[in-house]
Amino acid sequence: MIYASAVHSWTRFGAHVSASFNLKLKKMLPINLNKVNSDEFKQFIDSFDHVFSDCDGVIWNKDPLPGSGDFFNLMKKFGKTVHFVSNNSLRSKENYEKQFQNAGIDNGYVNLTVPSTAIAEYLKSVNFNKFVYCVSCPETISVLTSNGFKCKEGPEQISDYYGDFLQYTEDDEDIGAVVFDSDFKVNLPKLYKAITYLERSDVIFLSGATDKYVPLKPDRLTLGTGIFTQIVCEESKRSPIQLGKPGREFGEFAMKRANVTEPSRVLFIGDMIEQDIGLGKNVGFKTLLVLTHRTKEEMQSHTIKPDFFADSLGSLIPQLNMALN
Length: 325
Fold this sequence. Notes:
Layout: H1 2-28, E1 31-32, H2 38-46, E2 50-53, H3 68-77, E3 81-85, H4 93-102, E4 112-113, H5 115-125, E5 131-136, H6 138-146, E6 150-153, E7 175-181, H7 188-197, E8 204-207, E9 213-217, E10 220-223, H8 226-236, E11 241-242, H9 248-257, E12 266-270, H10 273-283, E13 286-290, H11 296-301, E14 308-310, H12 317-324
Parallel strand pairs: 1-14, 2-3, 2-12, 3-4, 5-6, 5-7, 7-8, 8-11, 12-13, 13-14
Antiparallel strand pairs: 9-10
Helix pairs in contact: 3-12, 5-6, 7-8, 9-10
GO molecular function, one term: phosphatase activity
InterPro entries: HAD-like_sf, HAD-SF_hydro_IIA, HAD_sf
Binding site for Mg(2+): 54, 56, 271
């Protein structure tokens, strides 16, 4: 009876601590993990079972960010599962594997979800058998063709005379899907073609990376390809199935691949507010923003707020080591 009473009391105490932590989370968002005390940091660690993380700007820029690999290795020591979710379909498998290896992360690519994979799996799920019109990077097209899908793309070379653009408004009945995913060679004729095909309601509209801005260097955000996807959405009056961040469908696909069923027990880590923190909010993950490309002031002024923030993953290593010991 004494043992049972003790267990009951401890369970009630644990529930009280958890409830207090969740209440604090709601009142004090976002929480600076670099400033919390040891008890609060342990409560943070206990609040999730799975880590999903972005790659570019979180684990590496051009080279690995200090301590990023150690962070994930420590997460595993805490019993957390570790997975990666990136909007970057541009990298090849070999490039990703090299990046993970340089950061000291084992099995990174195996546990990585990117839009090209999600797009291919979606098309399989609907038994798609027509042509895909791709306004996407070569690697996405390679993934689709390797999965047995027929793709059309281009044009890359176009006339200087605008009147010649009329040919790009002609429909192609062979096209059954339009895919946008990180085409940095996008041009007006490609947009014309996409808008024309999407006039048919039976044409599937899929979007991978939606990034309006990309960090080409640490202190500078520049225009990304998501701005062109937005133009096609407005002109075609169609909304794509978002198989890239911050799309809820993409987050749910990543959960399915990782055999995770409870989103509230996932911590999503990213460096971009709209894409990374937006994904977390759309799916119901806890969110951690690393300030590698954003200032604290920019974060606080944004309408989307993370649950937690830190200077970088490496900045949390001392606290993780203390909590582990």
